Every structure is written in C-alpha cells, then in structure tokens.
Give the backbone structure.
Amino acid sequence: MKIILPAFFLAVAPLVLAQGADTNMPPELAALRARYQDGMASLKKRYLQELQQLEANAVATNNPVLATAVSQEITSMGGTDTTVGQLDDSTDSPIEDIKAKLVNTTWAWNGGETFILLPNGKAKWSGADAPTMTWKVVGSSPPVVTGIAHNGAKYRMTLDDDLRSGKLFEGTASVRITARIDPKQP
C-alpha cells in the first residue's frame, strides 16, 4: 500500500489540479476527484494520528528534540489542537469526557509548583493571584492536554489512562513527571 497510494496520488494530482473549480467537470473526472479527496483526507487523518503517537513516545522517552520536531510537523500539516487525536466528530467525544474529569483538578510540577485546571479553559498557577495559564484536551488515547504556561511557553501533558499522573513537556525543557494532588477521582 505504501507504493500504490503515492503512485495513485501522483497520477491523479495533475488532473485534479488542472481542473480547478470547474463546475462543468465531466462526471468521470468528478468521481475521480472525489475519490482522491477522500483518500487524501483519510491519509492525512492517519498521518496526524501517527504523529501524535510519535510525539507521545518522544515525551515518554524524554526526547524534547523529537517532541518539538513532531509538534512542528503536526502544525505544518494543518493539524490543530482540536483535531489531532480526535477519532470521531460526535458530540459524545472521549475528549469531552476527559475534559469533564479534569476540571478543578490540581497538578504538581517543577518541584512543588501546582496548577489547577479551571472549567473555562484557564488554569491557575500557584505563583500567581489570577489564572495565567490555558489548557485543553487534544487527545484521548493517550489523554493529552496542551496549553500555554504561566511563563508564555507552550506545554503538553501526556497523561496515564487513569488521569492521575503523566509526563509534562514545556518548551525546550526536559520532560517532567506530573501528578494530581487532589482527592477528586476521575
């Protein structure tokens, strides 16, 4: 399949691109274009899912260089925090379920600092009087939270399935272990 798909796309791409937005397109070409677009969408979705897995592995093995490169590739491919890792478009999303379980939980990081994940997508860092961070769930398998830290750096937490601990990657710093310190159960 690795050889057939690229050959198919290389053969079809010039036809699709040459046709542009012609509304008088012959039905055979329209059908071929539709198959091409479906194939590309499916291929892109799978690629973004595999990038997320690679990024999670990079974080798990404390490889910030790889994690940063993969994050940049996700962005360059048009992946966004709301699409990467989300396997379906239903409103009964595992991402929404994880978010509901994480609201108002407190997490420790950086040798004693804490932050609380608030319901409005903000997070309050222990060193500030007001919410200075953002957060959102972007992946469900494994659970992944991303946001902007109190210092303006982007961060990514890859959590264990029980939502009690995980690994946190912030900017170019090394991976840190993070854990919930509140009694709330998911």
Q: What stands out?
A: Residues 62 and 71 are 15 Å apart (CA to CA). The chain has four helices and nine strands.
